[in-house]
Amino acid sequence: MHYMGLDVGQTGCKAVIFDENGNPIAHSYREYRTIIPKEGWAELDSRAVINSCFDVIKEVQDAAGKNKVKAIAVSSQGEAFTPVGKGGEFLANATITFDTRAKEISERWSKDFGIKKLYQITGHTAHPMFTIFKLLWLKENNPKIFEDAEKFLCFEDLVQHSMGVEPHIGYSLAGRTMLFDIKNETWSEEITDRAGIETSKLAIPVPSGKIVGEIPKKLAEKLGFETGALIVSGGHDQPIGGLGAGAINEGMAMYAIGTSICITPAFNEPVMNDTLMKNNLCTYHHSYPGMYTTVAFHLTGGNILRWFRDNFGQPELLEANKTGRDVYDLIMDNMDDKPTSLMVLPYFTPTGTPYFDSEVSGIIHGLKLTTTRGQILRALIEGVGYEMKLNLEILEKSGISIKEIRAIGGGAKNDRMLQLMADILGVPVIRVKVTEAACMAAAMLACHAHSGEPLGELVARWVKTERVIEPNPQNKEYYTERFSIYKKMYPLLKKLEEK
C-alpha cells in the first residue's frame, strides 16, 4: 500500500509517495514565486500554489505506477492564509510569514487585549507574522474582502477545500494563527470575538492523523488517486518534521537546516512561563499525540551560505559547472578545519527567537589581513550555531532539556556542517536517512489513519538513522568559552545603534 505526504512550503511544494514500510517510491517538486508588492510585504498567489500542488500530486502518481495511494496528509507552512469567497474563488493572495505589514496592529491590538493573557491562551507572543494580525490588517485596510470572505484558510485546509472536502486544520497549524486556545483545543471565542472574526469562517481544528474526508471520485481520477482515497489531517511543517525525524520523546529535538534554522523539541506537557514568553519561544501541539513543542528559529540559516556563494564563491561555482558537484558541498570542503577566533553575529536577516528584532544588522568581528576565506566561511556557520545554542540555553532554563538532535533538511547532508553544530551545541547530532522528513511524516499520518497502526510503531519502522555525530571534546570546550563572548554582542550592538 502507498501513502502520500504533501509539503506546502513558502518557496515551493513537494509530494512524496511512500510504501507501508516508509520507503520513498517517487517524488515531485514545483517552485512558485514570492510576490513583494511593497517593502515589508510578502505574498503567494494561492491559485498558483494549489495548481502546483495538484501538478506534483499528479506527477508523483504517474511516476509511482500501478499501486495507487490510499491516503494523503499535508504538511503546511505556518501563518499564511487565503480569503475564500462564497463561490470558492480566492479573493486575495496569501500573506506569508515574512510579511510584516501588520507590525503596528500587532503591537496595538495585543497591548489592548493583554499581552500576557494572549500568551496564556495561545502559547505565542505577538508578532506581525501570525494570522490574527494579518486578518486584522485586512479588516482595517480592505474591509470588502474581509466581509465577502466565506472562509479564511491556511494552506493545509486550503488544499482540502480545493479537493472538495470540508476544511479541517491540524492543532499544530491552528496554533500558528494565534486564534487557537491550545489548552482547550478549540478556537478561542474571547480572541475571535474581540477581533471580530467569525469562527464559522475558520477550518475545523482536529488532532494530526485524523480522517477528514474522501477525495471526490472525479478529482481522484484526475489526480491519479484510487477511488475512496482518504484525506488525513496534518499540520504545521515544523512539528510534522519533528515527527518525520523521530523526535517524539522528551529530550529529543528536530534540527532543520534549510534557508532558516529551526529546532523543534518534544515535551509531555505545555510549558508556559515568563522565561519562554520573554524570549518569544512559543508552546503548541506536536504532531505526535499527547506531545507539545516549541520552535526556536533563526531566519539567517542556509541563506548565509548563499550570500557567501554569491559574493565569494566564484571558484566553487566554476568547479560545480564543470564537474556537476553540488556548489555548497564544494564550499564546505574549503571551510577552515579549526575553530576560528572570529565572531559573527549572524543577523543578515531579521532575527527569530529570542529577540524578534527586524532592525538589527550582522557583524563579522576580528578580521585581519591574515584572515582567510575559509576562516570567514567557518565563522559564519559558527555564528548561526551560537545563535541556536542561545536558544537551547533558554529552553534549558525553562525546563526543556535537549539531549539528542535529529538533523533534517539540505544542510543535514553535509558531515562537516553536522560536526560543527554538534561541537557548538554540545549534544550528539543524528542524521536521519530520509531528509524530506515533513513529507514522510505526513505520509506516516496518512498511513496511521488508514491502517490503524499505532503511530509510535510506524515511527519505529519508518524513521531510520544514518549516522551519529558526537561533539569533539576539545572543540566543544573552546566553543563553550567563546559562547560567553557571543552572548554579549547583541546587547552591545543595540547600545551602539541607539547612539
Summarize the structure.
42% of the residues lie in helices and 20% in strands. By secondary structure, it is an alpha+beta fold.
Structure description:
- This protein is about 40% helix and about 20% strand.
- The protein has about 500 residues and is α+β, with helices and mostly antiparallel strands.
- The protein folds into 2 domains: about 1-235, 2-Layer Sandwich (Nucleotidyltransferase, domain 5); about 260-435 and about 465-499, 2-Layer Sandwich (Nucleotidyltransferase, domain 5).
- α13 crosses α14 and α16 packs across α19.
- It is globular and about 65 Å long.
- About 55% of the residues are buried.
Give keywords:
25 strands; globular; 2 domains; 42% helix; Nucleotidyltransferase, domain 5; six-stranded mixed beta sheet; 499 residues; alpha+beta
